[in-house]
Every structure is written in structure tokens, then in C-alpha cells.
Amino acid sequence: MTQQQTAGGDVRLAGISKTYGSFTAVQPLDLTVPQGSFFALLGASGCGKTTTLRMIAGLEEATTGTVFLGEKDITDLPPYKRPVNTVFQSYALFPHLDITENVAFGLRRRGIKSVKKQVDDMLELVELGDFARRKPHQLSGGQQQRVAVARALINHPQVLLLDEPLGALDLKLRRQMQLELKRIQTEVGITFVHVTHDQEEAMTMADTVAVMNGGRVEQLGAPADLYENPRTTFVANFLGTSNLIEGEIVSTGGDLVVAAGGGKLTLPRERCSAATTTGGRLLLGIRPEKISLAHADDADSIAAGRNRVTGRIVDSSFIGVSTQYVVESPAGKALQVYEQNIDRRAGLLPGAEVVLHWNPAHTFGLDADQDIDAGVESVEDAA
Amino acid sequence: MPVLRWIRRNLVVIAGLLTLAYMILPNIVVMVFSFNKPNGRFNYAWQRFSLDAWKDPCGVADLCGSLSLSLQIAFWATLGATALGTMIAFALVRYRFRARGAINSLIFLPMAMPEVVMAASLLTLFLNMGAQLGFWTVLIAHIMFCLSFVVTAVKARVMSMDPRLEEAARDLYAGPVQTFLRVTLPIAAPGIAAGAMLAFALSFDDFIITNFNAGSTVTFPMFVWGSAQRGTPVQINVIGTAMFIIAISVVLVGQVIASRRKNNARP
User: Fold this and answer.
1) Of B167, B174, B186, which has the smallest distance from its Cβ to A109's Cβ?
2) Does domain B61-232 have CATH number 3.40.50.1000?
3) What top-level class would CATH report for the domain A233-382?
4) Structural domain boundaries of chain B?
5) What is the pLDDT of residues A220-238, one digit of tens each?
6) What is the pLDDT of residues B135-172, one digit of tens each?
7) The pTM is what?
8) b/e for A287-318, b at 16 or more Cβ within 10 A?
9) Chain B residues lying within 8 Å of A106, measured CB to CB
10) What is the ipTM for the molecules in this complex?
11) Which residues of A are less than 8 Å from B160 in CB distance?
12) CATH, range A11-228
């Protein structure tokens, strides 16, 4: 299927919000999803991402604001009049119809009589040609998921909305479907808006990720940019793992120098998203895989100019490709370090005194007036 | 003791068969005595085999008239109770409104009320309203007591329905009417059918409420009761047997269709 979507345009949300009684699910939000992009709304459950998606679909009425599709205001259109289709979380396949009729549903409702060719092509695209006459309950979760995608895509919507479509699948199948969806998106060139709470999924699939928290978009950008340059502690902790070290700025000439944990750490000024005044507080962030470990006895061999933190290994776990260490130090109670298992290194055992060192350019700076633990594991309860 | 051991091992099967026999035996008696040729007016003792009654089921005065009336009342009562009950069930499951909890319990009131009491009070009501007793009063009463059963049957089904299916339909260009006809109704159909069958059975053989509110109209159960005072024609057994066979056939055909559909779907 090489259907090119010519009409359409960007999805633009202008000041859109949703409140239920006194509860605000989505704060007034401005968001533009460029045509043809794979856009992910990432956040913990209850952050407003699904509500945002449902407002684009028309299944939820926006309390304020406007939804634009290209130049057209579609805010007041009912869902069945929007050129937008949804892949639901539980797939929502019609149990009384077979796969063919499920996929043909949208075409038939628009009065298209000869659907066979299109349905066959679409089932071919999702590799389900042999299952045309089966009922949904006779298919596995992954197959049902692909039917749901086919049922939506066959209508050539201007935008395809995916509401946690891989949530019910096991890990291996999920990875496979991520690549599959990405392939389909590239093939059909339709705008995909994907809602997920899985940060790896968002980063693997999307061109642009909007990280949502508490009904707001915290940060928006390309996956690598979000990962390398988080601007809030929530993003730093929710996307992967970050070591956050609190310190006091001692010098702002050239690179920033920060006193933390009894030593001095430097970072490039342009990697700091917070105000920088001498004497001010700052959170320094460093990703676990960017840190190297040296035994305290070998500290002299560490190259000059690297950031150093001394500490003691309290835990280490071997997970195949890498070993993850937890290091207790004056700079932080539980600093995470991931070391690739290239050479097995003796001596890096729990209890060992070590020096953590890294390239200052890999350090990012955040405003210290935030909850340092925002976005850590417990986000599910906070939501 | 091999016999004792055999009994112990097959106890569940034996108990099951005995229970089944307990349920079926009265039906078998009805069938067997439909082929009887009794001496005198009462069909209570087996005399000899005969097809007389089967050849002339309407041979008894007023029997087929009462049967036809009962079928008509059952048909309209089923239609009315199913339509109203389905709407009530959807309202109770899908919408949040004031007094929803109260209505949920009130629905069970006609089931809980002793039928005789209900019958007598209905008669009081009809008489006070100056209504003419007959077909219409019976029909109104039947729809009333069938409603609770239909609501219960349909509600169970609607509660298990995923509201996202209707959202999916709306998302796939089905307007409100299309969504209802193409998705909501077909999925709720088994519950609605169960409610309708229940309503038909209840209406067709109701005696107490009907007897109080029928005036001079005579339904089939009333005919049987009336004739039992003076003698029981074999034709009653013929009608009973025919109803039994029709009901069993409906169930069997349904099962065959369902299993064939399943097999078709599995190439």
C-alpha cells in the first residue's frame, strides 16, 4: 500500500483544556503536530495524554480551546465527521464481525460498496491475509492489535491516533510491533499521534516526543534531544535515569563551576537551563552510562579536566550487556553507574572505594527549586 | 464390594441423571397421555394408544380460540416488555442520573410481590379506573410483570459490553443511528433475546394475574383450569407437547447455527 496522503496538514491544538467538575485533566495546551510525523505523547497514567488524544478524535469535548486540522477548525465536529481514526487501547474490535468486516467497517459507513480489494490490501499490509474470516476472539493479542491498526488505516485518515496500542502485549511482541508500526507509518506517510507511558517505546518510535505531567507538556523535542538536554527534573528522571547532584555555583566565568559533595564539578554554560548566578543553587545531572568508574587506588590515572566524585560501591548487579552499580557518595546517596561489560573488572565489588569520573560536557544543569525526585518510579502513584 | 465401588465412582453421574429425570418426567407424562384414549372425560388413567387427539387438536370447543388469544397476548407482551425493558436496562447501565439506585431496586418489586396479591390489586386498580376487563387489561398486566425479567436479562448483557466499541464505531464514521444498529444492538442481542424468550414463556402460561383481570376473556391456561373442573380433554396434552417440541427445536436450531458459525470461522 503506497497511498500518499496529499490533503491534510498539521494538527494544531490552541489553548485546549479539559476539566471534569473541579478536576483539571488537561491544562490549557498549545501543541502542533507536523503533518506526516510520528508524534508521541509520553507521560504517566493520569497525566492527561489520553484525554488530549480523545479531544483530537472528538470523543471528548474540549472545555476550552480549538482543534485545527490544517486550516480547518474541527473542534465542534462529531468523531464520525473527523478525518481522524483511532487505535484503541483494548483494540475495541467488534466481536460480532469477522476480521474482514471489522476492517471494512469505516469504508461501508461511508457508503463505499466494493471494499474487497482495499480490505485484502490492508490485511496484506499488516500480514493477516489468512485470517480474513476469523472472529476477533480467535486471534492472539498481537494479531488483534494489527487488525485494529488496519481497521483505522484503511480509511486513509489524515491523522492516526494510537492510545497505548501496545500496552497489552508482552515485552518481546511489543518490541516487534514498535518496529512494525514504525514501518507502516513510513510506508503510508500518515501523521501518527501515539500515546504511551513507556519512555523506551516513545523514544524508539517517535520523531518528536511531548513529555506530559499533571496536564501540562513539560518538554517537547526529538528523543535524543530530550534525553541529552532535559529541562526539568521530571523529564530527566522519567526519560531513562539521571543522577542529580545538588550544588552551589562558585564561578560563572567560562564554564560553570559548582561546589557539590566536597568537590568541584564543571559543566558547559549552554547546557544549563536554569538561571546562573554565583552563590545560587543548581542541580547537576549526569546519565549513568556516561560515568566511568575507577578504583580509588587508580585515581591518579584519571585524565585531568574530568568531573570526579568519590564514593563507595553499595550494590552491583550484572545484567548481561552491562553492570549496574549503585554508589554512595557525599554528592548523592545512590548514584547509578552503568558500565559496559567489555572486560570483567576485578575489584569493583560492593564495599570498594571508587572514583566516578566523566566528561564535563556530558553534565546538564537544572533549576534547583524543583522536586529532585519528580518522575522517578513512583510516578504511577502520583498520577 | 465392586458394586458399592462402582456406585461411589459414578455418584455424580447418577445424581445428575436422577435430577434430569425428575425434571423431564412430568413432560414425558404430558407427551404419553397425548396419545391416550380415555374412557370418560378425565385423561388420568392410561387406556390405549390413539392418534385421535393429534388428528383433531381443535376438536374441543373454545380450545383453539383460547390458544390463539394466549399466543397473541404473549406476542404483544413480549414485544412491549422487550422494547421497554431494553431501554430501561441501557438507561440504568449507561447513564448516571438521580434515583438510579432506587429504580434499580424498584425494578425487582414485581418479582418479589406475591402474584396473587399483585393480581388482586391490579383488579382493584382497573376497576377504579373504570377500565373494561379483557384483552387490553391482560396485556397491560403481562407487560408489567415481564418487564422486570427483561430488564434483568438485558442489564447483565449491557454491563459486560465495552463502551469503547461504540466509540470505535463513531470513530469509524458511524453516526448515532448506525452505531446503535450496527454495533450496540447486535452485541446486546443475546441478552435481549433471552429477555424476550423469558417474557414470552411467562406471559403464555400466566394464570393468576390473567384470571383476575381477564373479565370474560379466556386464555389457554384459564381454559385448561376451567376444563379440569369438568374433565380434561386429551387435546390439552397435544398442545402442551407441541409447545414443548417447538421450544426444544428453537433451542436446538440456535445451537446448531451458533456452532456452525464457529466452525466456519475456523478454516
Assistant:
1) B174
2) no
3) mainly beta
4) 2-52, 61-232
5) 999 999 999 999 999 999 9
6) 999 999 999 999 999 999 999 999 999 889 999 999 99
7) 0.79
8) bbbebbbbbeeeeeeeeeebbebbbebbebee
9) 172-173
10) 0.79
11) none
12) 3.40.50.300
